[in-house]
Amino acid sequence: MKKTKIHYDKTSDILYFVLKSGPADYAEEVAPLITVEYDKNNKPIGIEIMKASEMLGKEFIDQSKQSSPAA
Questions:
Q1: Could you tell me where the DSSP H helices lie in the chain?
Q2: Choosing a second label site near 55 at 20 to 30 A (CA), which of 6, 13, 24, 30?
Q3: Is the pLDDT of residue 19 over 80?
C-alpha cells in the first residue's frame, strides 16, 4: 500500500494530503475550509485543509510534519 504524502505550508497554514499523483480535474468544498480535489475519473487525489493548525490543533500539525516522508 502506497503511503499518503502530507505537505504543510506554515505561512498559509494549509495542510495538503496527496492521495494520488496526477492533475486535478475539479475540486469541491466538502466542509468549511476543506476541499477535495478529484481526477477526471471522479476519484479523489488530494485533500486541502485551510487554517489547519486551528482546525486540527498544533500538536497534530507537528506530528504530521514529523511522520511525513515529504514534510
A1: 52-56, 58-67
A2: 24
A3: yes
Domain boundaries, the chain: 5-66
Beta-bridge mates of residue 26: 38
pLDDT value at 32 more than 70:
yes
Distance of alpha carbon 37 from alpha carbon 25, whole angstroms: 7
pTM above 0.90, yes or no: no
- Residues 34-57 have a mean pLDDT of 94
Give CA–CA dist 8/12, Å, rounded: 9
Three-state secondary structure call for residue 52: helix
On whether the CB atoms of residues 15 and 56 are closer than 8 A, the answer is yes
CA distance 11 to 54: 13
For residue 15, the cross-strand partners are 8, 49
Name the residue with cell 506554515.
10
